[in-house]
Each structure stands twice: as C-alpha cells, then as structure tokens.
Amino acid sequence: MALVDEEERQRAERAHQVALFRYQLIREAADPALSPRQRGAMVRELAAKTHTDPFGRQITVGRGTLDRWLKNWREGGFDALLPPTRQVTPRTPEEVLDLAAALKRENPSRTTAQVVRILTQHLGWGPSYRTVHRHLGRLDLLDRPDGQAPPAFGRFEADRPNELWVGDALHGPKIAGRKTYLFAFVDDHSRAMVGHRWGFAEDSVRLAAALRPALAARGVPEGVYVDNGSAFVAKALLRACARLGIKLIHSTPGRPEGRGKIERAFRTVRDQFLVEVDAAKIADLGELNRLFTAWCEHVYHRAVHSETGQAPWSGGWPEPRSRSRPRPSCGRLSAGRSIAPSPRPRPCPCTPTPITSTRLWSAGRSSWSSTHST
Known about the structure:
Elements (H helix, E strand, L loop, with lengths): L1 H25 L9 H12 L3 E2 L5 E2 L3 H14 L17 H13 L5 H12 L5 H10 L26 E11 L2 E10 L5 E7 L4 H15 L4 E4 L8 H10 L2 E4 L9 H14 L11 H14 L57 E8 L2 E8 L1
Parallel strand pairs: 3-6, 6-7
Antiparallel strand pairs: 1-2, 3-4, 4-5, 8-9
C-alpha cells in the first residue's frame, strides 16, 4: 500500500509540473486585453519556437494545442491545464504478482526468467518478463546472492553444427555427502548440450563418460575447445582426439574468451536446474543424472535460445563425417586404449537398452514431470 501511495504522489507532482509549464507558455497570450489578431500572432510565434519542458526535453508545441490550452484556461483555470489522469486497469492480477514475489522470496537464487517459467508451468500462462522484473524491483527482491553481474564474453559463433564443441566442468552440490561435478559439452553453433555426465570426481574417467555417448549419438566434431584442467590435458583424451581427427584446442590460461557458450549453459543449469533441486532428497548419483537428463531433454533443448532464435535441435544435425579408417559400426570411441576402460564387455550402444524412468519434481509452487528413455 505504501508503494501505491508513493506512486500516486509522484504522479500528482508530475501533473502539476506539466500544468505549470503550460500556464507559463500561454500566460501572455491569455491576456484578455489582446485582440484576436494580436493573440493569433503571439500563438504562431510560440508554435515556431522550441521550448524546454519540466523534464529537460526540447519540444515544440503546435498552434492547435496552444489554442486548446488557452480555451481550457479560460473555462476552468489552472486545474483545467492538468493532464488527464489515466485510469489504468492492471492487466496482471495482483495474486499472480504476489505469487511471483513469494517464489522469489522462497528461493532468492531464482532469476526473474525462472520465476516467469514457474508461473507459466503452474498457471498455464505467465506475465511478461518486464512486468515481473519491475514488480520484484519495487519490492527490492532483485539483488543476487553474490551481488555481482555475470561476466561478459565474446560473440564468436561456429558456422554449422559439429564444427566446434566447447567443454568444461561445473562444480555441483553434495550428493550422499560427496561433492559432484558435471562434465558437459555444448555445440557452439546450435547451443545443444551434446554430452553431459555428473560424477564424483573431476578426472578423465568422468570426462569420457560424458564425451563417449556424445560421439556415438552426434558424430565426431571437427574441433573441441576446452580449458587446461587436468582432465582436459590427459594423454588419453589427446590420443583419442588424434585417432578421430578432432582438433583439440586449449584456451589460454587466464583468458576464458571462447568458452562463453558453455559458461552461459552452466549459468542456465544453476538458475533453472540446481536452484530447484533439493540435494538432500537425491539418493545417489544415478538419480541426479536421470533428473538432469530429463531436464535437459524436456526443458533446455525445447526452449528457444535468445541468441539463435530457435531451439537447439530445430535446425537439424549433419551426417557423421567419414574417416580414412572406418569407424566401428557401434560408434564406440576407439583410441588404442579406451579413455574409460571397463573391466568387462559392455553392450554395443548401437542397440540401446530402454531404461524408462519417471520423476515428478516439485519445488515450491512449480512442478514438472518427465519420462525419458535412453
């Protein structure tokens, strides 16, 4: 209520400033001692000039507008020069805005975009981002936990899918008392998350668990751009990329330019996935991976990207590149020694075994359910 009263006071003060400006402009022309001829000449002279309004803007006022102000002054005095009060009926119900504020207070890490998504899923429709953002700003709910803006990166983009994959590792929550790490690879052109895997260590074995299915499902990229972490400089990865003809590119230490796509994807993971996950209720790493796969396929890959203007998979995908040495029919990563050796034979991924899982994710007032088969 206090916010509404303050807005009304500011609106009234602004209206009086406008009325005073109009009066000062027509004051001399409103002199009843002037003849119509003299008044007309004075009004034409005012219409030809540029004036500074109460808010510092340079404006011109047409003769018809000046004549109308003169008529209003003669009939109603100063109050007749006040601009009409707009009776605006809010298009967004108050209870929806209250729900948006409650969602933000429930989890301050939620972004405005995430609040809008939850409202849309819960209600079947949602207010605009600007409406919710402005409402949260009035309530002083927009401060991020760290108080810092996200870093900005360059705008390079690959010309086609599979031209360049960008990989990195994200530090995640503790599951069953152990720290988790997400290895992920994003296609630089389409923004698709081609491979991902949560693990309990940031090593080459978990890296292989994310990269191997990506190569089998999406083909071999021309290049992979990564940082200088120990998993990304392991000899096994270098050997595998050499065998497959992948150009492995490491970023310059201290200069993250070029990894902006994966950093932005990880921010989306934090803002939309991790913020809604209750780590204490996740039993094991397998459940975390199943939840993340469901979110990735049913939310991330279906959302229209703000830069590309389309969902990651909507543009199609190229055929796998041919190699001088024929690849195994199963599409397994073959590099002499596997970068993730297994103690026993594993089934060929060309014949997928259906594993169906259903999970209902409820967080506050939001919920989504998904069924995923791999």
